Amino acid sequence: AVSLKDEAFRITVVGEGCQEMWGEPPAYFRGRTDFEIYPEEQARRVRAEDEAALAAGGAVLEMEDEMVRPD
After folding, report:
1. Is pLDDT at 12 greater than 60 in this prediction?
2. Rounded to two decimals, what is the model's pTM?
C-alpha cells in the first residue's frame, strides 16, 4: 500500500492498496498520523523510518511490515 505524508507526518495521499488492506476509504486516512491509525509501538517504528528517510533527503521506498490496526 502506498501513502504520502507531509512534513508533520500526516497522511496526505493514499493508494488503493490502503483502502483494500484496511477496508476504509481514502478520506479516513487523510490528515491522520500513524499514531492515530496504528498501535503505539508500530506507529513509533513507522515514524522512526519516516524520520530517517527525511533526514537522508529521501523517501521510504519499500517497507515490509505486518501492519496491525487497533480494534
Report:
1. yes
2. 0.73
Which letter, b or e, does each residue of 25-49 get, where b requires 16 or more Cβ atoms within 10 Å of its Cβ? eeeebeeebbeebbeeebbeebbee
Q: What is the DSSP string of 10-55?
A: -EEEE-HHHHHHHS--HHHHTT--GGGTS-HHHHHHHHHHHHHHHH
CA distance 68 to 22: 10
Average pLDDT over residues 3-27: 86
Residue 43's pLDDT is what? Answer: 93
CA angle 19, 22, 24 (to 5 degrees): 55
